[in-house]
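A reminder from the course coordinator: this example appears on the midterm review sheet, so study it carefully.

Given structure:
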C-alpha cells in the first residue's frame, strides 16, 4: 500500500484587541502615528522558549484588501526564541485629511516553526493573525482624544441610540450604558460624524454613561450625560 505524504493542517485564528498571539507578544493594542514622526516602532517579543516564529506584517484601509499608505520594515522575518525586534512603520506620503484623524489597520500574521521531534508527524499547525487599529493623527488638531470622548452627545430616536462625535478624534467605546442596560453593539464613532445603534428592549432611564479606550489601550474615566429624546 502506498504511503501517504505527511500533511500539515493549518488553521487561521484572527485575533483583535489583544496584545499578543501565542508565542509572539505585541507591544501595544493600538497604534498612534503622529504626523510629525518620520516613522514609529512597534516592538515584538518571541516569548517561546524553544521555537522561532515567522512574522509577516502589512496594513489595510479597513476592508481587509486595500493596502494602507504605510511601509512596514521588515515585512517578513524570523524571530528567534526569547528575542525582540521592532517593526518600523513609515507613512508613504499619500495625502490624508489634515483636520481629523484617519484610521487604518495593522495586520500581524505569526507562524510557529515545527519542532524537530514533530517533523515526521502529521501535526496541526496554528497560524495566528492579530489586527490592530492604526490612527493617523495630523498636527494641530483641536482638542484631545480624551476631550473628544468626554464631549460625545447622545440622542434617542425610537429604539435607536444616536451617538454624535463633533471632535477631530476617533472615539472607541470601552463601555456604554443607558440607565443600567449595556449597549452591546456600540464600538467606535469617527470624527465629525454620528452612528446609530439599537437600544436594548424595555430600556428605562435617560442617563447615559460611557468610557472610551485611551491612546494607551486602557479605559478612560467614566462620563455621564442626559439622553436627549427626539
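Designed residues:
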Amino acid at each position: 500500500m502506498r504511503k501517504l505524504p505527511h500533511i500539515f493542517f493549518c488553521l487561521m485564528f484572527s485575533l483583535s484587541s489583544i496584545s499578543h498571539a501565542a508565542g509572539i507578544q505585541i507591544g501595544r493594542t493600538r497604534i498612534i502615528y503622529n504626523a510629525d514622526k518620520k516613522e514609529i516602532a512597534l516592538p515584538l517579543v518571541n516569548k517561546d522558549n524553544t521555537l522561532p516564529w515567522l512574522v509577516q506584517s502589512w496594513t489595510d484601509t479597513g476592508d481587509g484588501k486595500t493596502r494602507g499608505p504605510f511601509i512596514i520594515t521588515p515585512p517578513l522575518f524570523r524571530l528567534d526564541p526569547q528575542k525582540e525586534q521592532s517593526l518600523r512603520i513609515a507613512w508613504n506620503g499619500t495625502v490624508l485629511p489634515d483636520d481629523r484623524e484617519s484610521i487604518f489597520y495593522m495586520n500581524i500574521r505569526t507562524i510557529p516553526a515545527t519542532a524537530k521531534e514533530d517533523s515526521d508527524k502529521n501535526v496541526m499547525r496554528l497560524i495566528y493573525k492579530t489586527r490592530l487599529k492604526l490612527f493617523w493623527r495630523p498636527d494641530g488638531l483641536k482638542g484631545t482624544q480624551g476631550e473628544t470622548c468626554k464631549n460625545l452627545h447622545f440622542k434617542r430616536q425610537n429604539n435607536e441610540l444616536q451617538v454624535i462625535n463633533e471632535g477631530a478624534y476617533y472615539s472607541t467605546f470601552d463601555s456604554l450604558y443607558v440607565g443600567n442596560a449595556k449597549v452591546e453593539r456600540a464600538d467606535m464613532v469617527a470624527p465629525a460624524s454620528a452612528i446609530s445603534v439599537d437600544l436594548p428592549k424595555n430600556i428605562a432611564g435617560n442617563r447615559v454613561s460611557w468610557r472610551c479606550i485611551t491612546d494607551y489601550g486602557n479605559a478612560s474615566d467614566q462620563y455621564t450625560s442626559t439622553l436627549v429624546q427626539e
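The two ends are 75 Å apart (CA to CA). The domain at 145-229 is CATH 2.60.40.10 (Immunoglobulin-like).
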